[in-house]
Structure formats: C-alpha cells, structure tokens
Amino acid sequence: MQMEKEVDGLGGTADGEEEVIPLQKVNWEHHGPWSWVSVCSRPGVRWVCERTKSDEFSEVASGLTRTWSRRLKMKRYRPLQIKYPDPALALAWKYVEGYFEQSYDAVFGIVHRPSFEARLHAHFENPTAAAQDDGPSWFALRNIIFAAGSRCVLAADPTVSFVQAEVQAAQYFQNALSVFSEIIFGHSGFTAVQALALMAFYSEGLGSPALEYPLCTNAVQLAQARGLHREPPKSWGLSASDDLNRRWLWWAIYCLEKQIAFRSGRPSLIDDNNISTTIPTSAPPGSTNDVEAFTLIVRHAQISSQISHRIMSVKAFKQAPAQVLDTVHDIHNKLQELLHSLPADLSVDPSESGDSRRPRPRWTQSLYLHFAIHGSLMATHIILFYPWIAARFGTESDPVFHNQVLSSSKTIANSARQIIRILRSVTTDIAAPAWLTFYYPMYAHINLFVYLLKFPSLSSVLGDLALLDMCTGHFGHIEHVTNSDISFHFPRESAALCLKFIKANQPQGRERETAPGTPQAGANPTLHSNRSRNDLEDIDSQLTSSASRDLTNGNLFDAMDIDVESWNIFSSIDITSDLTAAFGAFVPVEKETNESSTS
C-alpha cells in the first residue's frame, strides 16, 4: 500500500512512501474512499478541518482509527499448545440447540442440522472412531458451533456479563482456529468449507477480533477450489439434499464475502461472471435455512457487487461524470425496487420495539435487510456526496451534476436517518453481530455528520442533531454493556464538534424553522412533506454558496491533482499514527467580513 507524501496540501509522488516511513514499519490498512473510514483519510480530515476552521477533528479521527484498529487482530495470538476439551454432553447439546435456533447465520443453512446432530451423537458415543471421520475439519466445525451456540445461550443469561460470555465462547473459537493451517494446507473437503465459513461468521460478532476478512478469504478460495461456484455435473450423482446443501453453502459464502468487500472498499475475490451455481428455491428437509430471507439477502449481495464493480473500482473511477450519473441512477433504482419488494414480516418500522414481535433470528434478518439496503443507498451516492471525492469531477458549474449532488445528499441523509432511528430496537449483547451494532450505525452517523457540516442551516438541523445524539447513546450503551471493553468516543466527539459548528453558523436575522427535538419514531423515510421543498431550496442555496466560495478562494483540493493516480491518498488509513502530527497543525482560515452562513 502506497502512501502519498502529501503534507500541508502539497501533492507528492505516487511512490513516496519510503521517503516518509521505513517500509518495514508501515502499518497502513487499505480501505476504499467510499468506506466508513473515508472521513478519517487525509483529504477527509482536511475537508472537515477546513469546514470547521479548527484542527480539532484531526484528533477525533485519529482516536477512531486507533480504537478500531485494536479489534482488527487478536491480542498476543499464540497457537494453542493444549486444546480445550469438548463441553459436557448436556451442555454441548444446549449449545447446538442455541446455534440452530437463535444464531443469525443459521438462516443460511451452512450446516444441515439433522446431519450435524447425527454426526455429533456418533462423536460422543465413540470419540476415537469419530475423530478419524474428518480430523481437523470436523474438530473445527463442531467447535465453532459450540462457540456460536454458547454466545446465544449466554446472551439470554442475565447473570453472565458480556466479557465473561466472550471469554467462554472464545475457548471453542480458539480450538477451531488452532487447526486452521491443517485445514488450509492439508486434505480437506466440504466440512472444511463449512467450518471456515462459520468461523468467518463468528468473527462478525461484536466481541470478536475482526478476523472475518482473512477467514472469509480462505473460505472463498477453498469453496472455489472445490467447485462450489459451478453447477455440479449430473455424473456426480448428488442426492437432492446434498445438491441443495452445496448450493446454499456457496451462496452463504458469496453473501458474506460481498458484504465484507463492500464495507471495506477492497476488491472482491469472487467474479460474478464465473458463477453458474443457481440460487435454490427450496431447502433440504430439517434445514434451518430461511429461503425467503436468504434469497433477498442474495439479491442485495448481487447489487452490492455491482456497486463495488461499477462505482467503486479503479476503472469506474475513470468514468466521465455522465457515465457516473447513469450508473448511480441505475443502481439506486435497483435498491429501491428491492426495498419495496420486502414482505411485511421482513420490513422494519422504527416504531417497532425490537425482537419482541418476531423471533430473534427473523428480526435480525429484517434489520440486516433494512441496514444493508440503506447502507448501499448511501454507498451508491457517496462518490457525489463526499466533497473530497466529488471534487475529482470538477463540474460544479454543470447544472445536471449540481442537481444530482443535491439529490444524492438528500438520499444519503434520509438513509442515515432510517438506520439511526431503528437503533433503539437493536439488542446489544454477546450474540449481536458487529454489522448491526457497529458498522452501519457508525456509517450512518458519519454521513449525517458530513451532511450537517455541508448544510448547517436547514430546517431539519435540530432533528438531525438529535439523531446524532441518539447514535451517541447507542455507542454509549455498547460501552456500558461491554464494561468499556468496546469503547468508541467518535460519535460523541464528532456530535459535539458538529453542534459547535452549527451554533457558529446560525443565519443572521433569521429564525430557523423548528424541527422536532426528538426524532419521531414513525417518521417518514423522506423529509417531512411540509419542509422538504424548503430544505431542497436551502441545500441548493448553501451548495451554490459553497461552490462560489471555492471558485473565489481556490478549491481545497486543487493542489491534489485528483485523479486515479491519487487513489491511495483516499484509500490509505494509518491505523496507528497521530493524524495531527501527519498534517502539522491546521491553520484556521481567516473569516471574511461578510461571510455567508455556510462558511
């Protein structure tokens, strides 16, 4: 990963990394410029600092990347010298029941419950003989189900803390991880693919180290090596049940990999044009597969793949503005169609009180579809929304492009609101996945934060500030539940910075239209009808004012020669260094005497 030598706004050479940091000490993580950490990139931080006329955000962003990076790897990982024993018989079956009946990823039917239970029964009846059955793969598979199942069981026990539950579940996960090398480098088959897939899903948990990327990568490669992405030949003579299990396993891995690639901004390992395995329309008898929900999740993953390929790739970044607008419109329409096709029992209403109305797995599936679709809507429009990316097009004077920037800003704000409004219905415990409790809430918070900095004088500002506070409360609750083991202060600090900026930019001689101090539970996903037209006019006015000021004073990004060669400026996040030190102190711009309300 290259890092531009780019300090104090000066562009550097594309291969200048060695001039700044010795290669052996580089600790950068690649994330695409559209990812949730884009605002923590150098251009993102510089834009916020310029907008707020303060260098305060550089430390706020640095704190986020430092805190987040701690969860990317396991602390002091050492291979197990002695493996943990299987749980007692009764407890093992309790964990198995917990996994298949309460775990979110059971919906994917990665493991056929009757087959697994028969195999586990044989294992406990004769462990020595059963160990010869599949060796490391079977050892990993049963242990990862014990790990995931114990989470579900312990999440329902109020006497067990989050940290205690994670420590107990982690024993079985470490067992599974201890045979990782044997699975990858030894002889392995279908069971190995199942085990790796479940290990990746387990790593999606809130309390887990974020190992899902390497685990899912290996699951994909092993699955493709076994030909799961291709239609099986009839000569194999697979039974109907085996054929369905094989197909569903592939599509489960596909969905997970596309989601991980999408939110990290990294290229997918799966070429959609090389898949011939069809999506089944039924599940094997006894399977926990929810065909309806799973099929909708696959449809979303396929659209997500298009976003990554058609909007977020290096090739797409070279497109002309007109092509970009056409692509954004096309994918936006696909996502809206998917959103409107959700059945009533998989739709989410912010007035709902959580999983009390539906079984937890079904409610979590509903939340996933709600968060994922709105997250994809934001990602689809982000290239036109983030100023440090949109500046690349240099078409502020084009009315078509200008109007699309307005529309994209509004779409992103609406989707961010829809995610944040539902957070009060999210159950935060050891069984909750990180995409539900961390990724989508943080993505929504950051985008609404940027929206408020761009348009600080809208009539919706008070309601949006309340939503930022709601998101801050969500992350405060996570810190409380986890006994400060998981602690992100970015929402609180950025919300405070945003409030300070809003107060400093109140329109002179004008009373802002009152917006609700607390977001209404059943609020419409679009802006309230009685103010949407006024807000759109306000957005247009503020955006025009900002563009005019850039033309007068020089655009913040003029010196950066924004093109595909500058890609790494946007996509490299230093996960350890102090961003303030990297920039030098920010020198506030002197305010003009007749400064507009959006300066």
Automatic annotation (TrEMBL):
Q: Name one GO biological process term.
A: DNA-templated transcription
Region Disordered, residue ranges: 508-534
User: Which keywords does this chain's UniProt record carry?
Assistant: Nucleus
Family annotation (InterPro entries): AtrR-like, XnlR_reg_dom
All copies of domain Xylanolytic transcriptional activator regulatory, residue ranges: 212-286
Which GO molecular function terms does the record list?
Answer: DNA binding; DNA-binding transcription factor activity; zinc ion binding
Name assigned to this protein: Xylanolytic transcriptional activator regulatory domain-containing protein
Taxonomic lineage of the native organism: Eukaryota, Fungi, Dikarya, Ascomycota, Pezizomycotina
